[in-house]
């Protein structure tokens, strides 16, 4: 009878309380019914919507601002955009580290949003204040230096704000779902899909409404709108405080990994134990934060860090630079296993980088009239990529996943790396289509130099934007889920930062590739990048990217087939009578 009562008590505690190291607003164990999941996530998604509205309202028209207001040439403007985009998407590595190690995710979101607001305010002032304006008259051909300084200072403040905002907010949202609760774990998979649905909604409004204001009113008014929306969303974010599940910062997540490496090197001459169960792990009763990881056979050299040496010193008193738990060893293996996948997804990121540079600039040269004299801003065509992503996420979530779950028995439908790989195939098709469309545009220019390509509708670009959007629905969402899920529990913000750094590093690689290709092709006569699009050969550059991505696909498939996913020991919560923990491996 007592045993049955104990089992019932354990089930009641597990169902009513959340035991994943999170706390509620008052520092207590969160109640499942009143905290987390969608009741908390809606506030988090709201501020993500406003941030993406601001980011894409600025990013997609940045190359136009640089060429029309600051008067940079095409190649310089493309490099400037790539550098800014690269910094913006690499800064989350620092922001994620700060969130995990020191500030915590909630505080990091607040601080970074305030920095973001400072950047938006500075952009507004740089447009309206007479002493900071680009030009004193509309006829100037070179902006004042003071405007350039303030403009780039403002945009890089936004980069810093994004650096803390993106990794901390997305991981904070995912923290609202308990991995050890089957229903909440399934809801978290849905969360990443609908997170990106909200992201795309902000993107569409950013590249339509905001860009329209920039094109038909002025840039300064658009910056005022973005500033107000961001300020209001910060207030909404604060309103959700009673519903959030919080996780405290745990100190540098990198130090324990260095300790594992040092311990493995120190004990490199020791023989492997005949049974992996002889490797050191702390007793389950002493585990207060995080989860246990199961031993894996790859990267066996690192296992030596968990070998118990023959000496009189108890294991718990040995230096962590000499002895590590098998969970810490497995966490280092997780990070090392991510590196090849990170590298293999860079070509996809390079293809995505073209959307905010050359694809947008192509739109400037085409006929943008829609109906009744209305002219579409060139950056608005980027909204088609968001529509493509929303369609693919909806189809995947509502149609493919339920059917694939039944067919494969996998609760995700297909594994994460398969989802990423499908999106990478779409990026190859995108570059092929983009090359064909650009060749068509150049032929039109050649046949009618006077009218140029204005006889071609901007909707010739629709296929390449829609296809890359479909790919984003698989690869970008998959990368978010992969880096969050496969990162150690203490590095979840850094995990999201790793995903963002793929796009950031790809922007820098794209910029370097443009420089290399420009220099190499100029040696043979006419280079691929001229003063403007009509004197350039972007079609050949797109074919080059298609080839690089196709060859890389072979490398990616090889890695994905050999990949070992995180293997967690799920431990049930002990009852009030001090019952033993119960291991459940997955």
Automatic annotation (TrEMBL):
<feature type="transmembrane region" description="Helical">
    <location>
        <begin position="457"/>
        <end position="484"/>
    </location>
</feature>
<dbReference type="InterPro" id="IPR044739">
    <property type="entry name" value="NRT1/PTR"/>
</dbReference>
<protein>
    <submittedName>
        <fullName>Protein nrt1/ ptr family 5.6</fullName>
    </submittedName>
</protein>
<comment type="similarity">
    <text>Belongs to the major facilitator superfamily. Proton-dependent oligopeptide transporter (POT/PTR) (TC 2.A.17) family.</text>
</comment>
<dbReference type="InterPro" id="IPR018456">
    <property type="entry name" value="PTR2_symporter_CS"/>
</dbReference>
<feature type="transmembrane region" description="Helical">
    <location>
        <begin position="416"/>
        <end position="437"/>
    </location>
</feature>
<feature type="transmembrane region" description="Helical">
    <location>
        <begin position="496"/>
        <end position="521"/>
    </location>
</feature>
<dbReference type="GO" id="GO:0016020">
    <property type="term" value="C:membrane"/>
</dbReference>
<dbReference type="GO" id="GO:0071916">
    <property type="term" value="F:dipeptide transmembrane transporter activity"/>
</dbReference>
<feature type="transmembrane region" description="Helical">
    <location>
        <begin position="110"/>
        <end position="129"/>
    </location>
</feature>
<keyword id="KW-0597">Phosphoprotein</keyword>
<feature type="transmembrane region" description="Helical">
    <location>
        <begin position="190"/>
        <end position="213"/>
    </location>
</feature>
<dbReference type="InterPro" id="IPR000109">
    <property type="entry name" value="POT_fam"/>
</dbReference>
<feature type="transmembrane region" description="Helical">
    <location>
        <begin position="83"/>
        <end position="103"/>
    </location>
</feature>
<keyword id="KW-0812">Transmembrane</keyword>
<feature type="transmembrane region" description="Helical">
    <location>
        <begin position="334"/>
        <end position="359"/>
    </location>
</feature>
<feature type="transmembrane region" description="Helical">
    <location>
        <begin position="541"/>
        <end position="560"/>
    </location>
</feature>
<dbReference type="InterPro" id="IPR036259">
    <property type="entry name" value="MFS_trans_sf"/>
</dbReference>
<dbReference type="Pfam" id="PF00854">
    <property type="entry name" value="PTR2"/>
</dbReference>
<keyword id="KW-1133">Transmembrane helix</keyword>
<keyword id="KW-0472">Membrane</keyword>
<feature type="transmembrane region" description="Helical">
    <location>
        <begin position="379"/>
        <end position="396"/>
    </location>
</feature>
<feature type="transmembrane region" description="Helical">
    <location>
        <begin position="219"/>
        <end position="239"/>
    </location>
</feature>
<dbReference type="GO" id="GO:0042937">
    <property type="term" value="F:tripeptide transmembrane transporter activity"/>
</dbReference>
